[in-house]
């Protein structure tokens, strides 16, 4: 025990004043089964990866830690819940663009762009993608809003020349028409909410999200990945896999469409730490 404490002090820089890579500390905590400490360290590692633009790596670090905490019935820190949701939303953008579904891509980019400070290495690029996908999808008011943000002095010089004139035109001749987002019932209380809203103002709950679309879940269209047990809209996940996207979007394991079944009475909060017994 004394040697363990000395090693932890060394890795934290208490002995020589030089903190070591947080991954060493994370691996030590995991090997010692000190999951609460490992979770705090995982958040630090993911923040560093996210700040440097390594979004997939940050996503996978948080996902692995998330699964470990759930396995040991330890409550998920709110910061981890939020950060993984944002990183997964960003990763979904490429999937939706690849399939030509620009509306889904735009909705995920709006979510990411609303938290743009979490993506400091690619602010101008993400805002540009948001403008482009929103404009393509007919979300002209959102396109104008993010185009205006891009033309601020701190971002203007970073705009890709390919899109600069288009972005300037969107701001000079604003078209602020935009249809309201379709609504679906909150899986907890039934209140109608925009499909990508993940907080219910009526019952005050954070809502589970579909790992394929990023939308909040629906009780009557609920399935789970057979490998990681994360929720997805059954109708969407089955079509997604049948169309050739064979890997689960969050755990990256191959899924057979025959493995997917509708869950009649789902645990709405199995991935948000609600049933947990310990606080991190």
Descriptive key words:
49% helix, 280 residues, 11 helices, disordered C terminus, two-stranded antiparallel ribbon, globular, single chain
Structure overview:
There is one protein chain. By secondary structure, the protein is mainly α. The protein contains 11 helices and 4 strands. The strands form 2 sheets. It has a two-stranded antiparallel ribbon. Helix 2 runs antiparallel to helix 3 (35-51) and helix 5 (78-98) runs antiparallel to helix 6 (102-113). The longest helix is centred in the N-terminal third of the chain and has 21 residues, at 78-98. Residues 275-280 have low confidence and may be disordered.
- The N- to C-terminal Cα distance equals 22 Å
Counting DSSP H or I runs of 4 or more residues, the number of helices is 11
Which residues sit in consecutive blocks of at least 5 with pLDDT less than 50?
A: 275-280
Q: What is the general shape?
A: globular
Helix-strand topology string = HHHHHHHHHHEEEEH
Strand content: under 5%
Rg, alpha carbons: 21 Å
The percent range for helix content is 40-55%
| Strand neighbour order, sheet with most strands | 1-2
| Secondary structure tally: strands | 4
Largest sheet report: 2 strands, antiparallel
The overall pLDDT, averaged over residues, is: 88
* Content-based structural category: mainly alpha
